[in-house]
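Record type: monomer structure entry
Structure origin: computed from sequence
Chain ID: A
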Amino acid sequence: MSAANRLILLAPGAGAPSASTWMREQKKRLEALGHVETFDYPYMLAGRKSPDRQPVLVAAHEEALAKASLDFGPGGAKVLAGKSMGGRMGCHVAVKLGDAIAALVCLGYPLVGMRGDVRDAVLLELTRPILFVQGTRDKLCPLERLATVRPRMRAPNELHVVEGGDHGLTVGKRELAARGETQAAVDAAVTLAIAQFLERYA
């Protein structure tokens, strides 16, 4: 499907709103792949730091998708992309809506909770294709933990690894210098991986 017929809803992580530099830059890169909309969860809009409870987050996410879909018009593929918590909430929405969602892109999926619990239940419920974009230094998603979850998933799932990337997919300056690479090149590789994934599924 062409980018013109693809709606991408980009959800923020828990710590920063859609107006953050990270979100604005990611939105700009994704705009080459489809029509991109962003939104903020209720607690962000209210100026609170602590996220709402999951049912509130999921409802807000679904409402944002409905509004974006209305503005976008009928037809087309709906893709749920999200940073960290936004990606996880997108998974819950995709479980609820099923085939109405073409694919998911999780940028730094928060697999491991604050207490060390592995939050894989929603991933095992998924049926829609999902791309994980994960940094090797992301403490919230150790790749060896993700590797034990992916074979048990029903949904088609792919992984793009950002070598040296943290939870925000940022690589340290020293490592970039040692590799003769730039963060812009790392980000471009992520966008290419997303593009190739969406060509297959959305």
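Annotation 1: The mean pLDDT is 95.
Annotation 2: The first strand starts at residue 6 and ends at 11.
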